[in-house]
């Protein structure tokens, strides 16, 4: 059920962001491209955290054709390599003392089963655990932003999740087999995608519960259905059919796909929805409350995720 009778958030409602520092993961393509562009147009400094400098440089050049002087830079990030995420954090902290907005947007969908070098299923790591590692590493910078602005609502983390988390994943997180190794059949990659997106919804609540009093809040959202590179990963008949279906079904533009992220990241109104699951354009959707209203489910994922990071040599919870 979708709640909220107020007017839908528009790009024109993004406040002035001069002086704000932000990161958009996967900001070189699709929804992330527009998220980056709109933040930068409102005056924010934006780091595109992504894996290919060439692709990011091309994106920045295209954005500057739209508007000169945008303050956008590349930050190397490979979510499929946990150790390299420590370098991403170090690199960022060598340049900036605070981070106002972190948009965990990068993702892959319905890839064939594959383990990363960290031994995690590739979607689980890209969409969930890699982003959690990045978020935890950047918490000191997010805290610094909250202190800097002396504002309990300023430092925000936005997890770009998906309705797939509600529709395709298991009923709850599978802690016995988080890689969902045992799944078989053509739908298995899609169900793994749903699983990691479910986790990204729940972890936003866990972060908000723990850091809200320190001025940091987190949000999760479905951006809408947008034609992008995301649909290119499944080369089976199911992937071909879904791409064909996308071509004839109503889809949103990438800029509309970015609107709910931008709402969560910038709107003064969004603070009332901290920790919740949002849908276009900036509305709370109660369907995820079956997990979000269950403190045991939220705490369990928090503990699992931080234990995983600890096992991979990350500092323990701050
Ligand atoms: N499009 C939709 O209809 C839809 C619907 C629901 C949810 N979403 C979610 O929205 C988000 C954005 O999707 P999109 O449609 O804009 O997809 P997209 O066009 O495929 O863009 C994905 C971005 O993620 C980056 N990325 C992928 N793997 C990475 C890794 N290992 N490390 C760092 N960056 C990585 C990609 O970088 P490269 O350029 O290097 O590949 C690209 O910049 C995703 O989280 C997706 O799950 C999308």
Automatic annotation (TrEMBL):
<keyword id="KW-0521">NADP</keyword>
<dbReference type="Pfam" id="PF00106">
    <property type="entry name" value="adh_short"/>
</dbReference>
<dbReference type="InterPro" id="IPR002347">
    <property type="entry name" value="SDR_fam"/>
</dbReference>
<protein>
    <submittedName>
        <fullName>Uncharacterized protein</fullName>
    </submittedName>
</protein>
<keyword id="KW-0560">Oxidoreductase</keyword>
<comment type="similarity">
    <text>Belongs to the short-chain dehydrogenases/reductases (SDR) family.</text>
</comment>
<dbReference type="GO" id="GO:0016491">
    <property type="term" value="F:oxidoreductase activity"/>
</dbReference>
<dbReference type="InterPro" id="IPR036291">
    <property type="entry name" value="NAD(P)-bd_dom_sf"/>
</dbReference>
């Amino acid at each position: 059920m979708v709640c909220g009778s107020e007017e839908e958030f528009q790009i024109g409602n993004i406040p002035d962001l001069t002086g704000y520092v932000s990161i958009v993961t996967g900001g070189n393509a699709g929804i992330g491209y527009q998220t980056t562009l709109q933040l930068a147009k409102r005056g924010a400094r934006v780091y595109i955290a992504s894996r290919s400098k060439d692709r990011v440089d091309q994106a920045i050049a295209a954005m500057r054709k739209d508007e000169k002087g945008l303050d956008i830079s590349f930050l190397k990030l490979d979510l499929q390599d946990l150790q390299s995420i420590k370098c991403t954090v170090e690199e960022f902290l060598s340049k900036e003392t605070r981070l106002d907005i972190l948009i965990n947007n990068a993702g892959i969908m319905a890839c064939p089963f594959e383990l990363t070098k960290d031994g995690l299923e590739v979607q689980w790591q890209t969409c969930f655990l890699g982003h959690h590692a990045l978020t935890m590493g950047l918490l000191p910078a997010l805290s610094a932003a909250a202190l800097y602005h002396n504002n309990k609502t300023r430092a925000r983390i936005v997890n770009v999740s998906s309705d797939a988390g509600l529709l395709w994943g298991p009923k709850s997180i599978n802690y016995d087999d988080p890689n969902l190794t045992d799944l078989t059949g053509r739908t298995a990659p899609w169900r793994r995608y749903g699983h990691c997106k479910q986790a990204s919804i729940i972890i936003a609540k866990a972060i908000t519960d723990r850091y809200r009093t320190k001025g940091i809040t987190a949000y999760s959202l479905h951006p809408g259905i947008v034609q992008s590179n995301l649909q290119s990963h499944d080369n089976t008949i199911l992937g071909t059919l879904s791409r064909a279906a996308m071509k004839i079904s109503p889809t949103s533009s990438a800029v509309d796909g970015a609107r709910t992220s931008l709402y969560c990241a910038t709107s003064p109104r969004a603070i009332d929805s901290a920790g919740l699951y949002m849908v276009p354009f900036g509305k709370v959707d109660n369907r995820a409350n079956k997990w979000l209203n269950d403190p045991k489910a939220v705490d369990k994922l928090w503990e699992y995720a931080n234990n995983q990071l600890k096992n991979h040599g990350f500092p323990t919870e701050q």
